[in-house]
Design brief:
150 residues; alpha+beta; 10 strands; 25% helix; globular
Length: 150
């Protein structure tokens, strides 16, 4: 004999410790839990770029993608690009030496999760949904960030 489970609302009423949250709220909680790990991984990579030259490489309007070219000093002189996907804010110089890029998580005015990458010494700041480094096959993305705004 199979016993039918009561509807979820009835379960919640019977058990005050069971809280059913709307999807957007559940996604927001998951994002806040994962955010520190993603930011830490991004900063691990960015620290390997310390001391590099950085220059504005391009901007694609159709994808709101900003590309920063990084040329490590003292190592291979081959540069590589860091793409900032769905770039919502950009400020700072177009070229500088001795880059010290660091990442932190921020929320925009709609509550969407964003990365903010900055070099405080030169006043460079970019805010975006994702960071992609094709040369190293790296992607740092909050796949749910735009879902929270909608």
């Amino acid at each position: 004999m199979t016993v039918a489970k009561p509807p979820l609302d009835a379960q919640a009423a019977a058990s005050p410790s069971l809280v059913v949250r709307p999807r957007a709220e559940r996604v927001a909680r998951l994002a806040k839990m994962a955010r520190p790990k993603l930011v830490a991984r991004a900063n691990e990579f960015l620290k390997t770029c310390d001391g590099s030259d950085a220059t504005f490489n391009g901007y694609t309007e159709t994808h709101s993608r900003f590309i920063l070219a990084v040329r490590p000093t003292g190592r291979s002189s081959e540069s590589f690009g860091i793409s900032f996907v769905t770039c919502l804010y950009l400020a700072g110089p177009t070229f500088w030496s001795n880059a010290q890029l660091r990442c932190k998580a921020v929320e925009d005015s709609d509550g969407a999760l964003l990365y903010e990458i900055a070099d405080q010494a030169v006043g460079f700041t970019v805010r975006c949904d994702a960071i992609v480094v094709p040369a190293y096959d790296l992607t740092f993305a909050h796949e749910w960030s735009r879902q929270l705004a909608g």
